Structures are given as C-alpha cells and as structure tokens.
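Hi! If you just cloned this repository, the fastest way to understand the data is to look at a raw example. We've pasted two of them here, unedited. The first protein comes first, obviously.
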Amino acid sequence: MAYDKAFAALSDPTRRKVFELVSARPRSVARIAGELPISQPAVSHHLKVLREAGLVIAEPKGASNIYRIDPQGLAAIRTWLDRTWEAALDAFQAEFSIEKEEK
C-alpha cells in the first residue's frame, strides 16, 4: 500500500518536523538544518526517507537541492484518510439508525 511508507516515515518526530518545514515552503538542506538542532547530514538522511516514501521531491538548484512536498505522495495518504473517514461516518450513521429504530 502506497501510504504505508508515508506513515512509517512520518512516525519519527524529527522527520515530521522536517516534513512540516518543507510543507510550509520549499527549502534546502542547509535551511532546514538551520532551523533544527540537527546536522545537515542528519537532515539529508531524513529527507532521503521522506523522498523514498513519496512525500517530498528534490529539485536541483545550483549546487544544492530544494525540497518540496510531493503532491502525488500526499494524494495516496488523502485517499486512505478519505476512505477511512467515510467508513467511520457510515458506521456512525448505521449505529444511529439502529438506536433510532429501537426507541
């Protein structure tokens, strides 16, 4: 399932923070490292995991890469969440209908 890697990648709190920074606006590794208490190699590692999970993409710019959110990767998560939410609402509606009939 496409979203499994994404959720696994986001399970790490530091990686989530890296993802949140990139989701706010595209950034380089150096910019991200400047905003977190971790080294540039650590940021690069987290970005690699996020990239392999389909959550971010890298765009070469000069001597560095600029990382941004990958809309296709997020679409897989959104699809799963939408399906899960619909199922939960359907179950709630069914339960509410049963209780209403019993009264």
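Ok, and the second one:
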Amino acid sequence: MQTIGFHPDYLEPVRAGTKVTTVRYREDMVVGPAELVFDTQPTIALTGEVTGVRRTRLDELTDADARADGFADRDALIERLRTVHYPDLPDDADVTVVYFRADGPA
C-alpha cells in the first residue's frame, strides 16, 4: 500500500473533506489504496484511496486545483508549496495532482 505523507496542518481539512487533493513534486502516486500519514506527535494515519492522478506543470495549476487542495486560489497554493514543502520549486516544474479520499483511522 502506498503512503502519502502530510504536514500536520492538513489533518483537519482532510478529515472534514475540504482537502481532497494534494500537489506533489517528484513523487509518484498511483490509483489505489493508500495510507495518509500526518507528521503529528504522535503520528496519525488514516486509511484512504488515491482516486485519480493528473500530471501537469506548476504554472498550469488553476484556482479549481487550489480550492480542491484547501486553498483560496492558485497563488496561495503555489506560495504554500514553495514556502513549506518545496523551496526550490521552479515555475515550470512538472507536478502531480493526487486526488484522494480519506476513510478513517488506519
């Protein structure tokens, strides 16, 4: 089973269903079962499923992509990607939008 790691800030939005995608750089994901692991103390894991994968360029992300990821707009999503997750993310980076569903505690 594949594992998707998450920053602890995303636990509640994932549980609430307001974050249903994640944008990844240099990570391969496939449709199928997944464990969603949050870097909390202690670690929290949820079972879930990757329901879709779409490869695109960073500069082609849309406001709709951002809202599905729990952000107000594309600029907020890209700022978070660069300041928290991938500081050296180039404008033309190939990224993967991972669509997922969280089911419950692992």
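That's it. A detail worth noticing about the second one: The chain has a mean pLDDT of 96.
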